[in-house]
């Protein structure tokens, strides 16, 4: 469920969680577990996405643009820029982006002083056009469109492009129609290739192993940052980039994204771990819920078993060609028959059954009521039909899956019972 944004800090490495680990008391169990993580053996990783695959993406994009009558597509910094070009860059007030024409090679637009770094990252044939601090970067885009005789054709904007880019391009080309690039960018990114699936599988394997490592070493009295530090240490040693997580203890687990109230691990209390990591830019998102150091109460066990059943209902509903929203409908109707809801009311499930996942933890499309996009081979989703009882506790089990010719396939196998939460 965690959502991760692209920032300069994310891209340049490091992170608050690993820094926080250094502040743990040297005598604490968490500190010991962080140090012991150094003994873990790295998991073999698939290779990163190749330049050849990125070229294939550009070719597919051009084909879609021609069929849709789109003259060019503008994509600014973020996962989609990486997807097409290999450039991993953060968003700021300065434009770095790619203009992909329906015919011919793209151009990269970036500040002059960033050109050497951008050139190092660029993985496809493209001219780099630079602008100085007192230049208008959208004029570079407009000039390119004029050169290619595209200024009178619709220009597609990637859906997360910021408003000021459209506003300033329209100042340069007032009569140029601007349209959604979703049929091109979203249409391609929703369907993962075998290489992308392999990277997501590696990330999921590492995420599951890291949760198991931390869960088995959680001790009474630990606070969320201590548990998080153990997960981060395991992630780093196993070979992934840790993108952070939610460590929800006791009543905090009743709220999907937690509470500002401070909780520590106590015997018999629910602990919910919802964490993400990435391998060569591709994400995993897994949640495990368990009861610490005690047999689960009848109520805790009942809710856990119902969420476990909810995951299976979602998988049964995820059929090739079915609307994505029908998966959510199947789970929610069953939950309502058990007395939860109705719809998003609590106690029950206050969020969608799942979200798309790939280069971003959350990306289109979602398993939510009303989403009519047909499920297709290569689509990837989370499956997390949590149940929450405000003031008491919540249970969320989350495993991601991808669609195959024969139906949905989990990246990670859901645990069999609340007594074996990391199996």
Automatic annotation (TrEMBL):
<keyword id="KW-0482">Metalloprotease</keyword>
<keyword id="KW-0645">Protease</keyword>
<dbReference type="Pfam" id="PF00557">
    <property type="entry name" value="Peptidase_M24"/>
</dbReference>
<dbReference type="InterPro" id="IPR036005">
    <property type="entry name" value="Creatinase/aminopeptidase-like"/>
</dbReference>
<dbReference type="GO" id="GO:0008237">
    <property type="term" value="F:metallopeptidase activity"/>
</dbReference>
<feature type="domain" description="Peptidase M24">
    <location>
        <begin position="199"/>
        <end position="405"/>
    </location>
</feature>
<comment type="similarity">
    <text>Belongs to the peptidase M24B family.</text>
</comment>
<dbReference type="GO" id="GO:0006508">
    <property type="term" value="P:proteolysis"/>
</dbReference>
<dbReference type="InterPro" id="IPR006311">
    <property type="entry name" value="TAT_signal"/>
</dbReference>
<dbReference type="InterPro" id="IPR001131">
    <property type="entry name" value="Peptidase_M24B_aminopep-P_CS"/>
</dbReference>
<dbReference type="Pfam" id="PF01321">
    <property type="entry name" value="Creatinase_N"/>
</dbReference>
<dbReference type="InterPro" id="IPR029149">
    <property type="entry name" value="Creatin/AminoP/Spt16_N"/>
</dbReference>
<dbReference type="InterPro" id="IPR000587">
    <property type="entry name" value="Creatinase_N"/>
</dbReference>
<keyword id="KW-0479">Metal-binding</keyword>
<feature type="domain" description="Creatinase N-terminal">
    <location>
        <begin position="57"/>
        <end position="191"/>
    </location>
</feature>
<protein>
    <submittedName>
        <fullName>Xaa-Pro peptidase family protein</fullName>
    </submittedName>
</protein>
<keyword id="KW-0378">Hydrolase</keyword>
<dbReference type="InterPro" id="IPR050659">
    <property type="entry name" value="Peptidase_M24B"/>
</dbReference>
<dbReference type="InterPro" id="IPR000994">
    <property type="entry name" value="Pept_M24"/>
</dbReference>
<dbReference type="GO" id="GO:0046872">
    <property type="term" value="F:metal ion binding"/>
</dbReference>
